[in-house]
Amino acid sequence: MRQNYKDARSKPYATSTDFCRIYDEQMASLYLLSLLLTADPEKAEQCFVSGIGDSLNTNSVFKEWAHLWARRSIIQNAIRLLDPRLNDENEANRAMFWRSKRKVPVDLEANPNLARVLGLNAFERSVFVMSVLEAYSNQECSLLLGCLRRDVANARTLAITRLAKGLITDESQSAQDVTAFTRVAELVPQHDCFGPR
Question: CA-CA to 116 of 20 to 30 Å: which in 1, 39, 122, 138?
Answer without folding.
Answer: 138
